[in-house]
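User:
Note these tokens:
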Amino acid sequence: MTLTRRTFTAGALGTALAGAVRAAAIPDPQKVGVLGLDLAAMDRSIAPGDDFYRYVSGAWLKNTPIPADQGRWVEFTRLDVLNAQRNRALLESAAAAPKSPEETRLGDFYASLMDETGIEARGLEPLKPELARIAAIVTPADLARALAQLSWDWLPPLPGGASPIPPAPVSAGVAVDIKNPTRYLPALGQGGIGLPDRDYFLVADNAGFARVRDAYRAHLAAMFALAGLDDVQTRATRVYALEERIAKAHWSRVEERDPQKRYNLFSRADLAAKAPGLDWDAFLDAAGFANEQTFLVNEPSAIAAASSAAREVPLADWRDYLAYRVIRGFAPVAPRALVAEDFAFEGRTLTGSPEQPPRWKATGAVMDRAMGHALGRLYLANYFPPAVRARAQAMTLTIKAAMGRHIAALTWMTDATKARALAKLKAVNIEVGGQDPLRTYEALAVRRDDAFGNVLRAARIAYQRDLDKLGKPVDRREWRMVPQTVNAQANPVLQKIMFPAGILQGLFFNPGADMAVNYGAIGVVMGHELSHHFDDQGAKYDEHGALNDWWTPQDFAQFTAATEALAKQYDGYEPLPGMHINGHLTLGENTADLAGLALAHDAYHVSLKGKPAPVIGGFTASQRFYMSYSQVYRSLSREDFMRRALTTDPHSPGEWRAAEVRNADGWYEAFSVRPGQKMYLAPGDRVKIW
């Protein structure tokens, strides 16, 4: 059955809002009043100096359930759900009554993903050509071309948490040359494993990982069976063994953070000599790099190992491996049984979520990835008033000025390095709302009865858009996020920080609320992102966005000593029995949180222009500031989600992000924290960097 625009029936929310979405925005259901703090969440029986996190949010932590379709519940995910509801209304309106060619394309794409009846009727037919293509692999050149095709057919998730693992063991893409940031380079990187990280395959003494490994083997077999293939246990065994081999050569998440180690320029001859086994000419031509001679290779040893496997592992094993990858790519738009199995592993096993999200929510996530800029255009028009943008932009300027003051006042940095740091700060652009201009999708052919085809075409057009950058000047206007993303990002190569509309709401930003609270929430995020240009890795890029050693040796030694102290502090935190936070994996984010707290606290008090900070609700301005910071990171996580986060996420879990206040002198003063209290750190043990 094919949905037509006349027969499209909106869901419950869309029925109420279709045709009226521009007249009224869906309100944010969280009521915190003009103060901006959720005072009902507090547990005032706890002393702030003993457990500040539970003092601020103890009642909330006790009384709030994690929604059944979520692995964790934190302000980021709460706003994700709110925005998903808003997007649903926008998409259903576009599907029912589009007002432009772009809305027609957007609505038809959404309708194709929501057409459960049609998807069930078509069954596995859309997948068969892809499986036939894989079955036809009989030569090494065929294999190389099929591996390259995985990069064309992957629709990458939007940024958030751990970096996603591309489906190909040698993933292809286009990147800015970080040592010459005026040009793009074709880039090759590691990927190709179906578990969240190499540790899931390789760490033997973690019971959680062992359980996931067993579940993954069963999942592989189940997916093969649902795709109509035979001998599913043998296929699953082959795929698991090949992925385990690939995982053994993967770089760790900590190694991946070092841009110097990831910067390796190879010629075609270098690839053949240093990574023999793969038919490189066939691979590079199929990846769209036929005319390219220089390649950025991010993890040379992992690429060499994958190339060796291309030669040594039987083609039959590779065919099974590739078949699983195309089945996995089909899963979001597959019949119900395959969708359910995909969730059973990706959702229930890996994150502990007991309940599959409703179809509209999963569909909205695909739309964000496939046509996120078109959806973002509607989102900005309906949910991001100019006054909110202006207020946020004004705050960013106060944070940037605070960073300048902090750099100028540093006692450990020499004047020569300070001058370079201030020049770098001056070069940083701050962008709010979304990419300008947003992308358009005229090249995307959309059919209302072809969900899988629409997803593949969207992925291939996105990949081609990257290929088209080669040989052209670097476009510094680009974002990796869309306007409705609940996130923020720094890019030291493009010399900017970005705040999408999606995060500028809720507990993060309430333009009508007390500004001490706003500075403690979004102000810290702004300082966090700005300071990423000066964290343990961002500091390696100069004022032109180039990876360049611009520090004096003594200055960098001082800086490294401070960041190492912070890494050691976080190494000591143990969110799960036997699993500590990895202080070096999370070092960049923890450094940024530390800086954000200092910058935002300073910026708030300077913004008062000499006026006394008001006491509101019995709390001083500094108390409200630190309470707001802790409040936005209150978090509930299922054990499986936490295990995955501790392994893969460069951010510390919410409770330990909130613990950053232990390093802030202002927090001790605000709450009269004294020696003997559990969170107290002696002044000499408090880490200070910026």
